[in-house]
Specification:
This protein is an alpha+beta fold. It is 29% helix and 26% strand. It is built from 15 helices and 19 strands.
């Protein structure tokens, strides 16, 4: 049933809206949504804000149940949801991370300008399309054994660089150095490994993409210069993918385990399709079975964290391999060394991840488990986890849009640390489901429409492009405008796509 959320939420200011704990009995903290009035109007039929309320029931949650401006309905948590739980009495929930563990965005800069690349763009896209398999279930160029996959899971992008798939300096431009601490490959199931082994170095399907983009506008010249963004017209490469079938299977494995663990730890769900707590000792009621969870300190909680970090490392290694083959494609097509072409990583951020971090709460520093579901870190200048190169400007925040409009690079801020556990949104956010988009755009040649705008597309299934059309997404310029004006990320660069590779 459609709701007028502006009548339910309490307006803090033009871009902040609070959901009172009185909205649902059992909410432990309020909700906070970052959005414009127009965005809230468009969310009347979306259950995402209802999910913000549900997340507020989680044991050990502190602060707010947060929603970034790209918020839309997801599994358990809304996509664009952020929540922090205490380590001693809080829980970890796979629904707060999602199926595509460490889906993330990497941006690679180049020394090329648009007019220089234009004659070579069709050949470059063809080469990338051959070298970086894109699509559901496809296998990559690299074959690794079931034994070697343990090293991928333990060391992530570091494993790939040590094998020659990248440059040592790449690791300095990846969140957590490309290897999440605490990864435990022994907690990944055989089925997850079997799904992951053939997919290492592949792009996947759905909203995953590889785009050649052009710097369209620079808002902060100093921050841009530090990143290697020198001028309007400069060519960049956006890579958006994650842990593929291995991450999906890992999530499913632990959702199944968490349902059992929830009952064991006295967590009860609605009777319909729900679970009964062991011996009827109900300690906690959660309104949605998709929030199945376990105490962080429990065996089940620790097992999930170890498996999630390992799957996250697979995601970092996957993007590293793709970067290597993109560099080789540029070299083959342009006949120039990738280093001379300046194909350096600006940054690689994870979304769909839970991380153990130090934050301040009520004036005290404490360690928390930060769930980011369709959200990324946005740490400020001077933070110890920000690479040395970016200590003076803050961590780069990559916010891709849809394939027909814009993408942005921002930087994190002190206000993000104070309000959102150092978090920002991960993209534009869907306006339509995939089915709705295909229904609305039946018969529309999306590839031809993009070509008319000067955007070339290579896709395994061009009929499926309707799922990713601009109409299916919020306008990322409006989404980033909320980030910027609310002060939780600062705009640095806007880019537009000229070449797209999709599954």
């Amino acid at each position: 049933m459609a709701k007028n959320w502006k009548q339910i939420l309490q307006r803090v200011d033009a871009l902040r809206w609070d959901l009172s704990r009185d909205y649902k009995s059992g909410m432990r903290v309020p909700g906070r949504i970052y959005a414009s009035e127009q965005m809230l109007d468009a969310m009347a039929g979306d259950e995402a804000i209802e999910q913000v309320a549900n997340v507020a029931f989680l044991p050990g949650i502190v602060g707010y149940s947060l929603a970034m401006p790209d918020i839309h309905w997801g599994y358990g948590f809304p996509i664009g949801g952020v929540a922090a739980t205490r380590l001693d009495d809080g829980v970890v929930s796979p629904g707060g991370v999602g199926y595509d563990i460490n889906c993330g965005v990497r941006v690679v800069r180049t020394n090329l300008r648009e007019e220089e690349l234009a004659p070579h763009l069709p050949a470059l896209l063809n080469q990338i399309f051959r070298d970086v398999p894109a699509g559901l279930g496809l296998s990559g160029l690299l074959k690794v054994s079931m034994q070697e996959i343990d090293n991928v899971l333990a060391y992530g992008a570091r494993w790939a660089v040590e094998k020659g798939y990248g440059w040592p300096q790449d690791l300095d431009a990846i969140e957590s150095g490309g290897a999440l601490p605490g990864a435990d490959p022994t907690k990944i199931s055989r089925r997850a490994r079997e799904r992951g082994v053939p997919q290492l170095g592949t792009l996947g399907s759905g909203n995953h993409f590889l785009e050649i983009e052009v710097v369209d506008e620079i808002f902060d010249e100093e921050a841009g210069r530090v990143m290697g963004v020198d001028e309007v017209g400069q060519i960049m490469v956006f890579i958006h993918t994650g842990s593929r079938g291995l991450g999906h299977q890992t999530c499913q494995d632990y959702l199944d385990k968490m349902e059992v663990a929830s009952a064991k730890h006295g967590i009860q769900f609605p009777e319909k399709g729900g679970l009964s707590a062991v011996e009827g000792k109900v300690k906690v009621f959660l309104p949605d079975k998709q929030l199945a969870c376990a105490p962080i300190a429990s065996k089940e909680g620790q097992d999930y964290l170890g498996a999630m970090f390992a799957a996250g490392n697979f995601g970092f290694a996957n993007r590293q391999l793709i970067t290597h083959w993109v560099r080789e494609a540029f070299a083959k097509v342009l006949g120039r060394d990738p280093q001379k072409l300046g194909l350096n990583i600006i940054y690689d951020v994870a979304h769909n991840i839970a991380k153990i971090e130090r934050h301040r709460l009520d004036g005290k520093e404490m360690t928390l488990c930060i769930h980011r579901k369709g959200a990324t870190r946005a740490f400020p200048a001077g933070h110890p986890d920000v690479p040395s190169k970016y200590q003076g400007i803050g961590q780069p925040v990559m916010v891709p849009g849809d394939m027909g409009r814009y993408s942005f690079i921002c930087v994190g801020t002190e206000r993000a640390m104070a309000e959102t556990w150092g978090s920002a949104c991960h993209g534009a956010g869907r306006m339509m489901s995939r089915h709705a988009a295909k229904r609305e755009l039946r018969g529309v040649n999306i590839a031809a429409r993009l070509a008319d705008k000067g955007i070339l597309v290579r896709a395994q299934n061009k009929a499926a492009l309707a799922e990713e059309a601009s109409e299916a997404y919020k306008d990322v310029a409006e989404v980033v405008g909320v980030l910027h004006d609310a002060g939780i990320a600062r705009k640095v660069v806007r880019l537009r796509p000229i070449g797209v590779v999709k599954g």
